[in-house]
Amino acid sequence: MAAATVVHNVENNIRTLAQTKRIRVDEFFQDYDKLRSGYISVPQFFRCLWQTLSLKLNAEEEQALCIKYGLQDQGNINYKQFCNVIDVNFDPNNVYIPPVNQKQEPLEYLGTIRTKRPLTVDSEARLVEILRHLQQYYKIRGISLRTQYKDFDKHHKGVVSESQFYRNFLGPANTNEEDVKTLVDKYGDPDQPGLVNYLNLHNDIQAIYNFV
């Protein structure tokens, strides 16, 4: 794989992790940069990624980042330049590309994407009611859907199998089997048949009053 493609993929993954965890990575790199020079050593750079984001890169990915951001003769990394790419949505000095076209959108939540499978009009309307009921039910009882499924999500991808979703689903007594199937249809991962994106469901339940 070309180095530019490798770097692009790594940057997208780091951007997703940083925004998911609500972390500004430059704050952690600065712990190694007492003089605020904007540079730290290569080992410090990758150690920081591991400590803050639990991200372990392979040799190809590390080399690609070093080529783009490193000072090869000094063995240092320009972490400031790296952080600008991760944290800033667009380059205000680039007059050739409109800011809206430069904007970097991370993959949603923990590296997953929202389902693209629309439901019927009636099912979408029912979905809103289901989400409302779940939000109220979980709030009153102090239940977190995310916590409910995280033990089954060993790799922290935001997805579980359909059987795990059905088996461990908690909802109001008036939530029937058809309602749960509606959730599975809506939040089934489009790229991984048989998996349900419970994290997107969790976030929609949290935000239900903001978009209905």
From TrEMBL:
Superkingdom as given in the UniProt entry: Eukaryota
SUPFAM superfamilies in UniProt: EF-hand (SSF47473)
InterPro entries: EF-hand-dom_pair, EFCB6
PANTHER family: EF-HAND CALCIUM-BINDING DOMAIN-CONTAINING PROTEIN 6-RELATED (PTHR20875), GH12158P (PTHR20875:SF0)
Record protein name field: EF-hand domain-containing protein
The organism of origin for this protein: Arion vulgaris
